[in-house]
Amino acid sequence: MTGFLLRRLGGAVLVLLALTVVLYAVFYVAPGDVAQIACGPRCSPAQVAQVTEQLRLDDPVYVQYAHFLQGIVAGRDFSTGTGTEHCAMPCLGVSYQSDQQVTRLILAKLPVTGSLVIGAFAGWLLLGVGTGVLSVLRRGRLTERVLTWLTLAGSATPVFVVGLLLIILFCSTLQWLPAPSYVPFTEDPEQWAWGLLLPWTSLALIESAKYARLTRSAMLETLAEDHVRTFRAYGVGERAVLGRHALRGAVAPVIALSALDLGTMFGGAVLTESLFGIPGIGRELVHAVKVVDLPVVVGMVLVTGFFVVLANAVADLLYALADRRVVLS
Description:
Blueprint: H1 2-29, H2 34-39, H3 45-55, H4 61-74, E1 76-79, E2 84-87, H5 102-137, H6 142-156, H7 159-173, H8 189-223, H9 226-233, H10 238-266, H11 270-276, H12 281-290, H13 294-322
Helix pairs in contact: 1-13, 5-6, 5-8, 5-10, 5-13, 6-8, 7-8, 7-11, 8-10, 10-13, 11-12, 12-13
C-alpha cells in the first residue's frame, strides 16, 4: 500500500509539472501583448513598458517558469510598483489583472465550487444508483423501458439545456424558487441551500444517467454469474440475491466512477457555474483565459489537475477495498 501511494504521488508531481510546462509554452507563443492587456487599452507605451518590467515579462520564458517553480517551493517577492510584496509558499503567482495572490484567490473560490459539487454529488449518486436498482427490480416491464429511455435522454442532454429549462420553469413561470445565486453557508444556511438548489438539480439529473446505466449493467452481469444461479438453486430468495450479491457487484465500479467525477467537478464545473452565475473556480478560469491572465490560469489548472490525480488514486484505493480480487500494484 505504501509503495503504491508513493508511486502515485511521484506520478502526480510529474503530471502537474507537465501541465505547467504546456501552459507556459502555449501562452508564450499565443498572440497578444500581455503587458498591454494587463495595463489596459488606454495605457501609453511608457506605462506598458513599466508594467512589462514590473511583471518581469521581458525575461525569457524559462526564467519566468523557474521563478514560478521557486514560488511554489520557497515563496517569491513581487513588485507592486510602489514597493515589494512577499508571496509565501506555495505561491502560484500574482494575478496580472487584480494584483491578488493566486493562492488566496483559489482558496476563496474553493468553498464556492465545493458547495456546488458536494450537493450535486449526493444528488446524482442517490438518483443514479436508485434508478439503476429500480430498473433491475422491474426488468422486463414498462417501468424498465421508461427508465432506460429517461437515462438515455439524460446522457444526451447538455447541462446548460437542463439548467435553462429549470430556470424558466421554476424561477420565471411558476416562481417557486429565487434566481440561483451563491450565499456562503456560514452567513445564511437556508439561502445557501435555496440558491444552489437548481444548480445541484441540473448536475444531478445529467450525471445520474450514467450511474443508473452503470448500476443496472453491473447488477445484471452479477445476476448472470454461476454463483448466483447456485444460490437460487439452493433456494435463496430473490430479494437476498439482489441485495447481497447483485447490488454488491455494482458497488466497486460505482465507487471508482464517482471518485473520478468528483475530482473532475471539483476542478471546476465550468458550464454550470457560468450558467447560474456562481463565482467558483470554473467561472474564474474562463475569465482568466479571456484576459490572458497566465498566473491565474496556471494556478486554476494546477488545482484542477491536482483534484483529478487525487481522485484517480482514491478511486483505485476504494476499488481495491470494495473488490478483494483487485490487487494494488
